[in-house]
Amino acid sequence: MPRVLGVDIPGKKHIEIALRYIHGIGPAKARQIVAQAGLDPAKKADDLTPDELRSLLGAIQSGHRVEGDLRREVTQNIRRLISIGSYRGLRHRRGLPVRGQRTRTNARTRKGPRRTVGAVRGKEARSQAKQTKE
C-alpha cells in the first residue's frame, strides 16, 4: 500500500482509482494528475517505482489543494458563514440542510436519527405519572 500525502492508497487498484482515496481528488482531477505526472493510467498503485511516486507527488502538490489544506479551508469558510450570521451559517449551526432541501420528511443525514416526541413511555413511567395525578 503506497502512502501519498499521509494517506494509504489501495495498491491493488489502478492509479486513477487509487488517487480518489485522497480527500479533494475526484475522477477528473485524478486523470489530470496522472497525465501531468506522465504515468500509465492502467498501472496498479503497488507497481509504482519510487521515481514515479515522486513525480506523482510533485504533480499533486503543484496547484492542487488536497487533504489537510482543503479541509482547513472548508472549515474556515463554514466558520465565516456562521460568524457573519448568514442564512447558510445558521443552517450549519443548527445542523440542518444548507442547500434548500426539504426538512419535513427526509433530511435524516443532517438531522440525525429520529427523536420521538409524545406519549411513548415505558410501563414504569406511566404508573409514576398516574401516581402524581392522584
Would you mind describing this structure in some detail?
This protein is mostly helical and 134 residues long. The protein contains 7 helices and 2 strands, in the order E-E-H-H-H-H-H-H-H. It has a two-stranded antiparallel ribbon with strand order 1-2. A hairpin with a 2-residue loop joins strand 1 and strand 2 (7-8). The longest helix is centred in the middle third of the chain and has 18 residues, at 67-84.
Helix tally equals: 7
How do the SSEs run, as a string of H and E?
A: EEHHHHHHH
Quote the average pLDDT.
89
**Rounded Rg:** 25 Å
Task: Report the helical percentage.
Answer: 40-55%
Compute the number of strand runs.
2
Low-confidence runs of at least 5 consecutive residues: none
The strand order across the widest sheet is 1-2
The shape, in one word, is: elongated
Query: Mind describing the biggest β-sheet?
Result: 2 strands, antiparallel
Computed structural class? mainly alpha
| Share in β-strands | under 5%
In whole angstroms, the N-to-C terminal distance is 69 Å
Strands, helices and their partners?
Blueprint lengths: L2 E2 L2 E2 L6 H4 L8 H11 L12 H12 L5 H18 L2 H8 L13 H4 L11 H11 L1
Antiparallel strand pairs: 1-2
Outline:
This protein is an all-alpha fold and 134 residues long. The chain has seven helices and two strands; from the N terminus they run ββααααααα.
List keywords for this structure.
7 helices, two-stranded antiparallel ribbon, mainly alpha
